[in-house]
Every structure is written in structure tokens, then in C-alpha cells.
Amino acid sequence: MSNATDAAVRQHEDATNELADWLVATQQSGRPAFEAAREIARRMGALRRGDLCEVIFWAPEIQEHRIHESDVFIEVLVPEGGIDTLRARQTVDFTLHRIPVRQIDAWCVAAIEGMQAGTRDTIGSFYSLVWRDAERTWHRIHDPLAASLPFGPFAPAEFYDLAAMQDAREDKAYYEALPGDDVHKFGPASSILQIHVPTATAGMSIAGLTRHIETLAERVRQGAEPEPADRVFLGYDAVQLLPVEPTTVYEEGPAFWTEIAGDDTHLTVDIRRPDTTNWGYDVVISGMAAINPAMLETHRPDELVDLAAALHNFPGAPKKLIFDVVYGHSDNQGLRALNHHYFAGPNMYGQNLNYRHPVVRAVLLEMQRRKVDFGADGVRVDGAQDFKWWDSDNQELRHDDEFLQEMADIEQNVAGHRYRPWFIFEDGRPWPEEDWELSSTYRAVIENQRDDDVFQWGPLTFAHNTPFLYTFWLTKFWRIEEIIRHGSNWISGCANHDTLRRGTQISPKLNINTRLGDSRMEILDKAYDNPAAQMLTYAAFPGVPMDFLNAMARASWGFIRNQDVKYGVKIVAEEAISLEWQVDSYTYSEPGYFRRLKALGFDDRDGLARFFHILAPLVEVTEYDLVQMAVLLNGVSPSLDGPTPFDPVKLKEIARAWMDDMHDYCNVSNYLDRLGDAHTDYTLKLRNFRAARPWLRDNFTGDDRFDYLRPTRGSVVFSSLRHGPDGEDVLAIAHLEGQPIVDIDPTDAGIPGVDSGGWEVALRSPSIGEDYPGGPLTLHDGMALLYTRKRS
After folding, report:
1. By the 8 A CB rule, do 289 and 243 touch?
2. Domain boundary residue among 552, 580, 600?
3. pLDDT tens figures, 410-428
4. Does any domain span residue 174?
5. Residues with Cβ < 8 Å from 398, sequence gap 6 or more?
């Protein structure tokens, strides 16, 4: 890949003064501070204007330190040799230019000529804002609105040519086909596949996922019979990515950007390719307009545009792309990346954000606008119940519903076409209050937003759901009744990144539904990919169904984050219960799995399980004193497996090995060859059935019926009868848990509104068999049937 040339890099004085005059005029326009900040935010960061790079930083910390503009510069770094973005580690020499700025209060601006803009094939100049204190010590401020961060949010950003990236996108026809001459509004999808990019394919990158989508597309074009591994990706008309923003970095190193020598004109840097693993929600807020470099195979942000194009150009019908944005919190590492004005105090995840500060508010919204301009059709907002501010008049915390509306109102512009995305909010307020499971309506945002197609995650989708415990479905029946009456604007389905993770944290000593499988692994897999539950989600419930790829592929999943040092052992002690649910002795013994833990002396699963069983209570007993924990572990008799004698360093090594091994173990590519043909065919047909009947998204009305067979007689069998506007009736029967029901004819079981005439079997769960024509049968746990008929 070619690199930036060391042309004459200098301030363009006239353009700098013009930029400074514009900023002053905008601030002094008489408009509210937030409106002025939003206009300025559109030009913040480093943006290409013709042959110039216009740079605007908001840096109140410089003003607070009383630093004059003569000690403030835009530092431009031009690689002198090559940068191979694919290499794991390299030493790079940069020519350093310090460009003077105009300082207007907390703002620093400059128009610079000679900077190279990065493209798909060219590495651009790197930049940051630097200032010098009275001791002649240099301090660096990174660009929170950077477009490209090849070495993460704690390293200088790359000046990038976003216009060239947009001009080269291959889905322009998709946008040209959008109806209407005004701002297009994207509406709901039919069904969603949720994907964690690093575990979705063997390539563990956005480019790898794009190649997989393009391979599937070509198979569809050629009319190839889909294989089980194909089907888990097919039938959905939307893909929702877990967050692709930069996340936390290693707490104690190694850093991805380490300056090892330099003077006023040159800088030598030890560069490492970012390789952190994270489930996506541990963000530092800075860099949210860019992409996590650990997900980029080429370190080029164009990869995300390529993925959007692959989905939009999918044969048969385009697939929507949905981004997951996280603004409800910042990890504590964000304190290193942003000035203190961005934060409003600590919370359980790290830091609250200061939504009421006009510049912070404007920057957050601008980050969102720039990210969605990569080509997303929808936005899912994580943890919207955490968007709060302190109302000093009433002395209470208030939900910032105005900010949520501002998020939904943002207008995008891709390929010259304006649109507004479809919005989904995860909001379980009053979570995390103790009574949230009872008191949350899951409608707070829906009822406050102006658009009638705003969605929220529904009650079977949000947080703690355990469909592998006996009585789960009956205890949730009151919520199911809410779904059928009010769920048209809810996301439905039990399996997502959060619920599957919560499932692996449940004690296996609870009342497990052993009819789901012969082992804990099988029980967990079937609970979150249950043919009967899928029947309800796709053939009965209103709203938009969503599945998690790892659940549909029956792949493992959990909290994946290898950056922690201080609390890493504690986190792993809490997460290690997933060993009981997702790993058996045979699987652990396979050569490709858990190689790091094996290298530390955990030769078999039983030895590792014994270590974790003892480790977990020691966290609480010692109040997480690693020294005392090591002493107690060393005193166990007989001795534990592992790198004995234990000490704090070795405990941290074990925690890191667990996280890295679990990340590899959760990769979907490990499981695709184990998928069943009949089951994947069944779930794909369910999705196609739903897509062909968009009216199923609407709430139950009139003669529609939903109930469970009464008396239960030791089983939970749900029935759903829905009447389509085209004269079609749809009847679904699903056995969710309990004893078998012997010799039941679903069309003659006394279900109100159902009689025996005219029904045809449309779909059977795999264990029933294709030769079942209708009539009496014995329903077991997990079985389901779908009937249709035309009304006379």
C-alpha cells in the first residue's frame, strides 16, 4: 500500500482565517448554544476541502491550562518509509510538522495544505492536536471525530478521503431506487440477523464477513441448493451488527502506538496491529465515527462500505444494514481519550455522559451521523434507559427523551441521496431498579417519539431470559399477552447477544428443562434455537423477529474482553460458569480448542473446572485480593492443575488465556459443519413464511386468538390463530415444555375459532417429519405445527 508523500505541509493562512471567522460568526449568531454547536460539529475533525485539510478541535482543557495559541499546533506525521497495515509489528519513521492554529476560546482551527488524504490504496497523513506547557512538555489530544484510526483511539488519527470512499461504493443503484424525491424514511425489516463480526467467520473481520455474504449471494444467483451453513444466514432481510466502534485497549499494554524516539522534525514509532477481542459494548466514545481497527483486515474503513454494498446488492431482495450505537456509557478508559466535559460521573459500566453540555451533545450526534453515512439503513440504540441528566430544579435524574428524538431525526446522505434510518431502542426503564422486570413497559420511547415506526426491544428480548428453566414460558405468559396486544413495534425473539450470555451465567443446579436435550450443551443450544419458540416468534407474535447468529448456528457465546488486567480475574471467575453450559470433556480435548489454557497446565476440562469452582468463591471471600487468592489456591489439596505455584501474575495469565480461548471457541465457523439439514431448512422456511405475510407484524385484533391448552396436564402448549387481510387463516401450535400430549389433533382440540375444515399443514418442526399429513399425533417438548387455510 502506498503512503503519504512528504510534500510541503503548512498552514494556509487565508483559509485558516476564513475558517476562524466562520466559527466566530457561528458562535455569535444569536442562536441557542446547542444549535450553534451542531453546525460547528459538522465541520469538526479533519475534513478535506479541495486541496486543503480543514481541522477543528474543541479543546477546553487548553483554555483551562491558560495555554496561548503560540504553544498549540496541529501535529502532522508523514510516514517516511512504508507502513504495512497487515504486519503485526513494525517500526516506522515519520516526518513531523507542527502547524500553527487559530485559537478562539476553546476552539482550535487550521487549514492545512500538503496533507495526504488516505484512501483504500493509500495511507494518509496522521494528525492530532498538541500543546506545550511551561515545562516544555508536549501533550496530545486525539480527534474524537476521526474517520480512520488504524492504531486505535489512543493514537493519532489518519486524515481520510471520505468523499472518495463514497464515490467508489458499489451500491449506488440501491440508493437511486429509493422512492420519493424528498428525504426517504426507511421502515421496519421483516426479520433481523444479529451478528458479532469477529466471531461470525473464520476471517474475524468485516472484510471476511463481506466475502461470506458475497459467496452466499453468488450461490443464490446460480440457484444452488442451500446447505445448512448457508441457511443460518439466509431468509433475513436485515443484518444488525454488534458495535463496530473502537473499544478499550489493553490496560497495561502493549500499546498499539509507542513513540520511541523523536525531535522537532522526526518521530520514530513502534507500531502494533490492534488485536483486542471484545463483544463490542466497551466503548471509549472517542472515535465512534470510525471503525474498530481490530475488525479491519486491511485497516481501511472502506471495508464497512463494502459490507453495506454486499447486503444492498444481495440477489432477490436487498438486505438492510443496521448499526448498533452505544452512547449510554463510556468505559473508564474514555477518561484518557476525552476531556472531562464529556462525562457526568461514574456508573456501573464506567462513566455517564454529559448529554446536557451543548458541544458534547452535538459531537455525539455528529458521530452518529458520520457513522451511519457508511450506509446503514437502521440504527439500534443500546441501553437507552441510561441516557439521563440531573434536573437540578426538581432534584431528580430524568431520561433524556429529547436526545433520543434528536438521534432519530438525523438525516443521512449517501451516494447523493437523503434518508432517515429505521430506529430501534433498547430501553427497559426503570432498569436497573429492583422492580424493573415487573414495572418496565418497554414502550417508553415508542410513546414519546414522533415517528410511528420506532421500535423497542420487547420483554422476551431484553436482558434476563432463561427459556431452559421449567415454567419459564408460563411465568412469562403475562408478557406474551402484552406482546400479542401491543407488540407491533417490538423486536421479538429470545436469542440475542445479551440473553444468550445471561443463559450461560445461570447455575446448572436450578430446575433445568432436561427434556430439551441429553446434555447441558444440547439443552442450552435448543433453548435459544427452539423449533417451538421459533414457530411463535415467526408465525404468531407481532413485531419484527430477531435471531443471534451464534444461537442459530448453535455456537457458543459469552462475555469476550481480553483487555482487563485489574479486574480480569474477577470477570473470568464470574464468567467461568459458562464452562458448565458450553464445554464438555470431549470438546475441550479437541486439539484446536483451549490451546492457551492447555499450555498453562490445564490439560483436561475437569482440571480447569475444579480450578474455577474454587476460584469463584475466593473472589468474594478475599474481597478480590489476588495475593490472598493465590495463597489459598496453592494450599488446596490435592494440588490444582495449572501454572502452580499461583501468584497474581499467573492468575492474570489464566484470565487472559480464558478470554482468548473463548473468543476462538465462539467462532461460528467451528460449528457450521455440525448443523442439521432438517432443522435449518425448517427455520429458513419459517422466515420465508413471515416475509411473505407482512401483516403478521400487526397486533392481534378481532377474532385473533392466543392461549395455552387448559388444563395444562403437565405441559405448556401454546396456540395462535390469526386472520390475514387477504382471507388466509394461520394456525400455529407449539409445545414449549413439559409432558408429551398424546393423540392431539390441533385442528380439533377445542381452540376457539378453529374448526376441522379446510386446514392444510404448512410447516412441521423437524421431529414430526415431512410425511405427517394432519390429524392426531403426540406432541413432545419442542414440537410445533403450522396450518393455513383460505376462508370461504
Report:
1. no
2. 552
3. 999 999 999 999 999 999 9
4. no
5. 388, 389, 390, 391
